[in-house]
Every structure is written in C-alpha cells, then in structure tokens.
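User: Predict the complex.
Assistant: Input components as received:
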Amino acid sequence: MSMAEPIVLYTDLISPFGYLGAVGLGPIAEKHGRTIDWRPFLLGVTVMQVMGLPPVPETPLKGPYALADQPRCFRLMGLEHNPPPERAMQPLAPNRALAWLRERDPALAVRFGLAVGRAHWSEGRNMSTPQALAEVAEPLGIKGPELIAAVQEPEVKAKLKSHVDAAIARGVFGAPTFDVDGELFWGHDRLYMVERWLETGGW
Amino acid sequence: MSMAEPIVLYTDLISPFGYLGAVGLGPIAEKHGRTIDWRPFLLGVTVMQVMGLPPVPETPLKGPYALADQPRCFRLMGLEHNPPPERAMQPLAPNRALAWLRERDPALAVRFGLAVGRAHWSEGRNMSTPQALAEVAEPLGIKGPELIAAVQEPEVKAKLKSHVDAAIARGVFGAPTFDVDGELFWGHDRLYMVERWLETGGW
C-alpha cells in the first residue's frame, strides 16, 4: 500500500498571505489524509533577483491593493489582523529556523510556522529576531537557546539556500505555493482549487 | 426604492483570465439581481507603463506558471481552451469596440465581450482585427460595418483612453478586477469572494 504524498507548502514566513495559506491548508490536508511538508524560500530572491520585480508594497497600484486586501482576507478566515507597527518581518532568522526544524520533525516545523505567523500577523509580535522566534518556539517544546544557535550555523544557512534554489528550480515564485501531487497552485485564494484537485484527482 | 448598483467588471479583452472572470461573474450577478457594467482598460498601460513591469508571459517563473495555469482554469469552468496559434490578441480594436458598444447598450457590450472571448480563447479565431470583431458582432445584431467604422473614430479612441485613465484612478491594474459596491477584487479566482461579499454585504 502506498502512502499519499504530502502536500508541499512553499512559503516565505514574511508573507501574510503565506500564513493564510498555511492556516487554510491545514483542514484540507487533514480531510484528505495528507501531511504538509513546509519548505521555506525567500521572496527577496524569487521576486527581486530572479523575476527582477520590485517588492509588492512598492509596486504602484498593486501595493495599495495588497495592503487593503490583507485585513479583509484575515477577517474572511476568522483571523485577527494585528501586525506589529513595523509590519515587515525580516526573512532570514524565521526561514532558517523553519529549515532547521524541518530536518528534525516536519510536523513540528508546520506547527512552528503557524505559530510564527499567528504571533506576527495576529498578535503584533515582530518575529524578525532569533530571540522573538525562541519565545514562540518554547511552548512547542523547542529549546529556545538551541534555535538561537541553529539559525547562526553555516549548515542551516546552507540548508535554507538549498531550499530557495530547489523552489526556483520547481518554478515557485510567490507565497504561498502549493504542490499537490506535482501540480502547482499559487496563492492562498487558490485553496479552493487545491481542494478540488484532491477531491477529483485532477481535472 | 433604490436599485442595486451594477457590478463593475474592469477587464482588457486580451486577457484570458478576464474572459474567465466575465463568464464566472454572469451567474453570480444574476443570482443577486445585479447587472454587469463592463469597462475596458489596457493592461499594456497599467502593467507596463504605470507599474513598470514586464508582461506576465515574459516574466521569469510567473510566465511559465501562467501559461500552464490557463488551460486548467478553462477546464475547471467547463470551457474549451483553444486559442489561435498566435495566442495574443491585439488590444486596441477589441477594447475600442467594447467602449463604443457600452455607450449604446451596456448589456449588449457584456454579450459582445463574452462572444469575443469565446471566439478567441475557445474557438481559435483571432479577435485582433475590426473585421474579425465584426463577424462576432453580427449575430448579436450589431452591424459589422458600423463597428469597423466606430473603432477608427477619434471619439471612440478617446473614450477608451478615458476608461483607461478612470481605471487607473480607481486603482485597477489587473484583469479581471471586480468592483462590488465600492470593494475591489482582482482575479477570476476571487469570484468566491465577490459572491461572499454580495451574500453578506461585506465582512
């Protein structure tokens, strides 16, 4: 008997829409007996370096749209939208921490990713630093000092870089992107297609 | 008694996703007793000039994704995906024809826009020229020679330009964009939110 493949969730922890995608994917994956394999990547590399585009917040027309879109998408999913005053999360420490945890325990990495998103986007706690991440990690049974040390380790930095390279090779550019049995869907608003794909085996 | 406002559909006829948005919006609008006000704009102006971005097909990573996404989105809506070999539609004649028809009869403009999309994206008939558009228009009771003359008239050209300016002033950048009682939603994959907004009066 073959096990169903995990649903791969490519996301960058700095993305509020990536957080919405992770929250929404949970019950869909569970309903279909799938686990989630959360693989971090860096929007700063895919969007700015590979695609050659400015960040969305600095893009005329799209920047203001995305800013207004964010709170209503949180409300629609019943989530509080309360980012820290600075809004932006610095990407390296959070995504390295996720890459580190994923090697140890993929399910724990998913719980950590969700906890980081909730803390930053709903509880207004800026998740940019190893210290802030350690505080969120402790209640999940992750030792804070270990996390703080891990995100400075060369092999963890290299692991995140290899995730970024693999995501680009797979054709991933935006957060969240879902890989369901080899089919890519970009955007938390495509979860209805992810669900349909799982229900029908593809169309 | 106040009449319910029309749902404004901002789209550029060259967009296959705009066509999907128009098709999907029809039954939603009807269910909620709303008419559709189709206002043309030009992606070449919003995306390339105002946002300063390359066209999606030429954007690394996103170009290949969008190309693969197109046929599966058509299939999901039960529509044939059979564009002409050249794929691209030239924007000026189709969008001018729509701007011209909208002045005469907004409901007819919607039927025309749907017929143009069906012909180009499902029937492989390139809709770039006034002649091709006239052939699609005739069965709708629009006189072909009148359409061919109209798209050359300075006031029709100016009308399209004013639509483009108005769309940009409204914050529209991508096709399709729906304006539901003052709330903007971008993307045919956001129709589920348009429907929810109509059902709930906003959330």
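The interface with chain B takes residues 46, 50-54, 59-62, 64-65, 68, 72, 75-76, 168, 171-174, 183-184, 186-187, 189-190, 192-193, 196, 203 of chain A (CB under 8 Å).
Let me know if you want any component modeled separately.
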